[in-house]
Amino acid sequence: MIKISRKIISSVAIYAVILLIIGLSFIGIGCIDKNAPVTESILIKGSDTVLPLAQAEAETFMIENIDRSITVIGGGSGVGIAALIDGNVDIAMASRSMKGSEIENAKDNGIDPIEHTISWDGIAVVVNPNNPISALSLSQIQGIYNGTISNWKDVGGEDLKITVISRDSSSGTYEYFKENVLMNEQYRPDSLIQSATGAIVMEISQNKNAIGYIGIAYMDESVKSIDLKTDSGSASPTVENVKNKTYPLARPLYFYTDGEPTGPAKEFIDFVMSPTGQEIVLEIGYIPVA
Question: Residue 122: what are its φ and ψ, rounded to 5°?
C-alpha cells in the first residue's frame, strides 16, 4: 500500500481552494453589467440656513435619479462661497449675495460665479418658551444686540440679564441681521457665538434668558418666536407673512455655480426650480420663488 504524506494532502487541498477562489473571481468579473449606469456625484456646501432644504431636495432627486449622488455639507455661506472660489464644490449654498471682493477673488481664480435664487426665507427672533416676552420692536432688538439693553425688564420682561446668541461671521444670516437689524453697528462683545443654527436652537431651549435668530425652517417647539412690532401692529415670522410682506425680516436664498451649470449640477438645479422642487421648499418651511 502506498502511503501519502499528510503534508502533501494538505498542500494539494490548499492549492485546490486557491484555484477555486481564482475561478470564482473571474466568473464574478464576467458577470459585471457593462451597461450599468455610472454614478455621477455633486458636492454642495455652504449656508446652514439652506442646508435642510438642499438635503430634502437631494434626497428626492436621488430617488428619482439613481445614477446621481449628492453630498450636502453646511458650515456657513462664507464657507461655501470660499469653496466655490477655490473650485472645490459644484454648488455653493448662500443666504446672502456674494460680496464684491469675493467675486473679484473668484474671477482671479478663473471662477465665474452665477447666482440662482432658489427660495425665500424669513428670519425669526427666538427666545426660550418660558420667557414671557411675546413681541419686540426692531429698535428694541437692535438695542439688545448692540449692548444698550442688557436686562429683560427694560423691554417688559423679568429682572434677568439677557444672554445674546449670534451666528459666527461666516454665516449669511449673521451678515443679514447685522445690516437689517443692527443697521451695521457691531454686535455686543459678550455675544455667545454659535457656528450652526441648530446650536442656537439647542442653547435657547436650555437657557430661559437667551435670545437668538434663526431661519424659520429651524423653528420647533423647543423655542418661541417673537412677533415684530410694526406701525400697523405686529407680525409673526410665518410663511404667509413673509409672502405678503407684512413680516419685514426676509431675504432670498441662493445657489452659486461656476458659470452656467451643466451636467448633474444643472439637472439638480432644474429639479429644485421645478414644481416638485418648489413644493419641497414649502414643505421644509421656506417660501417658493414663484
Answer: -105, 145
CB 119 within 8 A of CB 254: no
How far apart, in Å, are the Cα atoms of 26 and each of 13, 19, 38, 278? 20, 11, 22, 48
Q: What is the pTM of this model?
A: 0.79
pLDDT band at 38 (very low <50, low <70, confident <90, very high): low
Please give the CATH superfamily to which domain 40-120+251-284 belongs.
Answer: Periplasmic binding protein-like II (3.40.190.10)
Joined grid coordinates for residue 34: 457593462
**Contact status, residue 213 vs residue 173, Cβ threshold 8 Å:** yes
Helix 275-284 with 263-273: angle, nearest 10 deg: 70
Q: How far apart are CA 203 and CA 211, in angstroms?
A: 9
Query: What's the CA gap between 227 and 218, in Å, rounded?
Result: 16
Return the CATH fold of 121-250: D-Maltodextrin-Binding Protein; domain 2 (3.40.190)
Q: What Rg do the C-alpha atoms of the chain give, in angstroms?
A: 27
| DSSP-based three-state secondary structure for 150 | coil
pLDDT tens sequence across 122-181? 999 999 999 999 999 999 999 999 999 999 999 999 999 999 999 999 899 999 999 999
**Which residue type is seen at 202?**
M
* Sequence-ordered alpha helix ranges (H) in 31-171: 51-64, 77-85, 100-108, 138-146
Q: Tell me, what's the pLDDT at 1? A: 40
State the chain's maximal CA–CA distance in angstroms.
112
Within 10 angstroms of residue 191's Cβ, the number of other Cβ atoms is 16
Q: Supply φ then ψ for residue 269, to 5 degrees.
A: -65, -40
Q: Which phi and psi angles does 221 have, rounded to 5°?
A: -70, -10
Sign of CA dihedral 237, 241, 246, 251: positive
233 has which bridge partners? Answer: 230
